[in-house]
Design a protein that fits this description.
The complex is a heterodimer of chains A (411) and B (263). Chain A is α/β, with parallel strands linked by helices. Chain A contains 17 helices and nine strands. The chains are: A alpha/beta (411), B mainly alpha (263).
Chain lengths: 411, 263
Amino acid sequence: MKKLTVLLLILVVLLSTLPLSACGDGYVGEVNVYNWGEYFAPGDDGTMDVIQAFEDRYHIKVNLTNFETNEEMYNILKNSNPSYDVIFPSDYMASRLIKEGMLEEIEFDNIPHYENTDERFRTGDYDPEGKYTVPYSWGVVALVYNTDMIPEGEITGFHDLWDEKYKGSVLMFNNSRDATAISMQLCDPPIDPGADSFTLEDIDRATGKLVEQKRVLKKYVMDQVFTEMETDQAALAPYYAGDIYTMLFNNEKLTYCLPEEGSNLFVDTMCIPTCCRNKENAELFIDFMCEAEIAAANAEYICYGTPNKAAFELMDEDYQTSELTNPPQEYLDKCYTFSNIDDEVYSYMQEQFVKACSSSAEVSEIETRTQSPAAVVAVCAILGVIILSTMVLIIFDIRKAIKNHGRINKL
Amino acid sequence: MKKWYEKVYLIVIMIFLYLPILYLIAYSFNSGKTSVWKDFTFSWYGALFHDSQIMSSLYNTLLIAVLASVISTVLGTAAAIGIANFRGSFRSAIQNVSNIPIINPEIVTGVSLMLLFTFAGTLLGFEMGFFTVLLAHIGFCTPYVILSVMPRIRRMDISIYEAALDLGCSPMQAFFKVVLHELMPGILSGLLISFTYSLDDFVITYFTRGSKFQTLPIQIYTMTHQRINPKANALSALLFVLIIAVLAVSNFVGAKRERRAVR
C-alpha cells in the first residue's frame, strides 16, 4: 500500500502543475507551428530564444511541433485533420501544396517586415507570384574535403566524387533526390535535375552512374557526415552549404568547394495551410520571423543562408563573406531548384536508388579494406565468448536441474 | 556467484549493455555539438532547463506515462480478475483479443488510430491531442498488465478469499485486503512495464499527437535533421541517474524489510 500511496502522490503533484502551466502568463491566443527539428534559435550558447521572445511580446502561446521530412509533413496534413497555423515546407513541397490547393494566400498587409526580404527570393519556380510563401532560409549544395588527405584546390566539382584517386574515402548523400540530382548532371548527355519531370530512362541512367560511383565510395551518409568529416575518417563529401560552414569550425583541416557544374539551390519557406484556425496569429508569427534581429538570430543558429537583407547586415563578417552562406550571384545562376515530380516517378526513383545502394559487391570490398582487421577479430572474439559462455551456462543449469529433480532454482 | 567465469560473463554483458549509455552521458559534458571532443562543460545542463520546448515535452511525456500506466493498471487488473472467472472458449477468445495490441505492429496500430481519431474528430468536432495520445497509450498498455496479473491469479488459492469471508470480512474488505495483496507483485510489475512502454513509445504517439502536442521521443527524433543537440544527452543522463537512484533506493528498502521479516 505504501508504494501505491507514493505513486498517487506523484500523480497529484504532476496534476497540480497542469493548471499552472496552462494558465501561464495569461495568454490571449495561440498559434500552432510545425517546423523542422532544431530550426529556431533556442536560446543556448548566447543565441536568442526566438519562440520565448515571440510569446513574451505578444502573449500568444506557440505550440511548436516538429517533423523530420517534407513527405511526413505532407502525409500528416493530408490524412489527419490537423490545425497547423504555420508550416515550413521546402520549395518543391510548397509547390505541391500550392498545386493541390492546401495553402492560404498570405495577406502581405499584415506582414510589414516582408520588405526585409531579398527580391531574389520573393518568388520562385515553386511560387511564381509569391502569394503563398515567405522564404525562411536557403542554401546550396557544396563539397567539403580534408586538406590533409587531398591537396587544397584539387577538387573542382561533382565529377571528383567519381575519381579513382580518392578511392575508399568518398561519401555520398543517402537520399534519392539529392544523390540522383548529382549523378544526373554527370550523365552523358546530362539531364537537368530541376526539370518538371523525368522519364524512367533518365532515372535508370542516373542510377547507373551511381552504381559506377560505388567503386570509390566509402558509404552513404546523411547526418553521419559530420562525424566522418570532423574526425578525419573520410576525405570528400557533398553536403548542404550551411552544414559545411559549421563543419569548418570544428575541424581546421576541412575546406569547401562550390562545384563548377552548379548544384541544388533550396529554399525553406513559411506558409499558412488551409487548415489553420488562427490566421492573424500565423501572420503575426511570420512577420516576427521576418524582423531583422530575429532572422539574424535564427541564421546564426542554423548557419544556412538568410533571405532577409536586413538580417544579413547584422551577421558577423565570417558569415557575410563566406561563399557558403552567401554564394556569389554567378554561381547561383548555374544552380537549379527541385520541382515537384509525380508520385510514380518519385517512387520509381527511390526504388532504383535503394537497388543501386545495395548492389555490387565492390563496396563491401572497400569497406573491409578500410576497417582494421584487428577490430574485426576483436569483435568476433568477444561475440564468440559471449555466445559460448551463454551456452555453457545454460547446459550447466540444465544438468543441475536434472540432479535436483526438475527444479532449476532452490525455490 | 562463486565461479570466476560467471563473474566475467556478467561483467562482459553489463559492459555491452551500458557502454552506449556511458558514451551518451560522457558527451553531455562536451562543449562541442558533434563527436569531436572540445572542452568539459556543464553548460548543456543549464541550457536544458531554460529550453521551454524540451521541458514541456518532458512534462507531457511523464504525465502521459504516469496517467496511462495508472489507468491501464486499474483497468487491466479488473479485466484479469474478470477473465479468470470465465471458462472455456469464451475465455480463450477474450484472451486472444486482449493479446492483439501486443502482437500487432506498432505502425499498424498507430496509423489505424490516427484514421479513427480523424474520422471521429471530423464527426464530433474534436482535435487530436493530449487525450487521444492518452487513450492510445492506455489501449496498448492494458494488455501488458493483463498478461502480468493473470499468472498471479492462477497461482492464488481461492480458499484464501473464502477464509477471509469466514473470518468476518465484508466482500469488499476481503477483496482489498486479501486478494489484491496477493496479486500485488503482478500488479506492480504490470505498472512498471506499462510505464516503460508508454515513456518510450514513438510510433503510436507520433500518429496520434495532433497539432499541439509533442513528447520527448518525437522531439529527439526530429533533432536528427540538424545534429542532435547535447541537451538531449544531458536530459538522458539525468533521467538515467534518476531511475538508477529510484531502483537502488527501492531495492535497498526492500532488502531491509526482508532482513527485518526474517528476524
